[in-house]
Amino acid sequence: MLCLGDDAPDLLACPYGPFVVERCASPDEAAARLREASHDALLLVTLAPAELPDWPALAQAVLDTAVVVVAPAVLPAAAVELLQFGVQDVLADVADAPRALRLAIERRRQLAAARKGYSTDLPTGLPNHSQLLEHMTHLLALREREPAPMAMIVLRVDGLATVAETLGQESADVLRRKAAVRLRAALRASDVVASIGHDAFAVLLAWIDSPADGERVMDKLAAILSQPFSVAGRAQRLLPHAGLASYPEHGKNAEALLRRALGVALQFTPVGREAALPADRGLAAAANDEEA
Which residues form the GGDEF domain (predicted)? Predict the structure, then answer.
């Protein structure tokens, strides 16, 4: 945790610790350390709490750090303003800081876990539909200032229901996870793979040189998903329907692009429907094909 202020308490041996404390001599030093690394908490001991909202570093700190302010003469209106700004707690007595810091850190961790659960498809660990739309909205806002082509690919797969009926829902979830890992391994770190339903994945190509690049990636991903998977000792195949929407040609907002790509995917015959699995070929190797 970071600590800024001359009257900060000794936090090394307090019962609410242990805390690893980095003390800062000035607001500029604290701002620099916040930029350099993440911290669980920031303790500010100040005689001028009303001036804190004007400190540029505070706006960034409250996003991912538990901020606690100690201000002995703080007015109620100033304390409420700081809480509305994102500060976790405002104290009049510095002796209460260890308890407030520990509880603020735990509340922040619980909030982060809740947000992750809300934005994640639990069976695959991928971002879910709402998180994908939020990410796309931010990226599209950036593209308004820095134009560059993007592509949205939707891959809806047949075969999961059959696996669930024959081997059980747990095996179907295993197959979804393996498909997710196979997609993730075939893309750049800057691309986003999301689960948008029990039988569909979306891939956001955040930067492409031309629409033709999106077509090539779509064909590659469909072919990858068409290769057999090993689930419960058996070869299982998914038959993907693939659809593509390009920015800005097919839309300039997240929902329009996703809706078009999904509509195109639903119109086409699944890739690989007529392909047969050679008897002497065995299972195709994939990064996620270890037996659980």
Answer: 148-281
Which amino acid is residue 250, in one-letter code? Answer: H
Phi, psi of 149 (to 5 degrees): -70, 145
pLDDT digits over 123-136, tens only? 888 988 888 888 88
* Among the listed residues 268, 238, 273, the one whose alpha carbon sits nearest the alpha carbon of residue 158: 238
Comma-separated ranges of CATH 3.30.70.270 domains in the chain? 122-267
> What's the pTM value of the predicted model, to 2 decimals?
0.56
Dist CA 124 CA 136 (whole Å):
20
Cα–Cα distance measured from residue 191 to residue 8, given in angstroms and rounded to the nearest whole number? 44
- What region does 127 belong to: left with phi over 0, alpha with psi -120 to 50, or beta? beta
**Cα(105)–Cα(150) distance, integer angstroms:** 38
> What burial class does residue 56 get, using C-beta atoms within 10 Å of its C-beta: 0-12 exposed, 13-18 middle, 19+ buried?
exposed
For CA atoms 145, 253, 119, 177, the dihedral sign is negative
Give ranges for CATH 3.40.50.2300 in the chain: 2-111
Q: Which CATH architecture has domain 2-111?
A: 3-Layer(aba) Sandwich (3.40)
CATH number for the region 122-267 comes to: 3.30.70.270
Cβ atoms < 10 Å from Cβ of 3: 21
Q: Which residue from 165, 206, 169 is spatially nearest to 189, judged by alpha carbons?
A: 206
Q: Return the number of other C-beta atoms located less than 10 Å from residue 290's C-beta.
A: 9
Look up residue 107 and give its two tokens: 């509340």
pLDDT at 185 over 60: yes
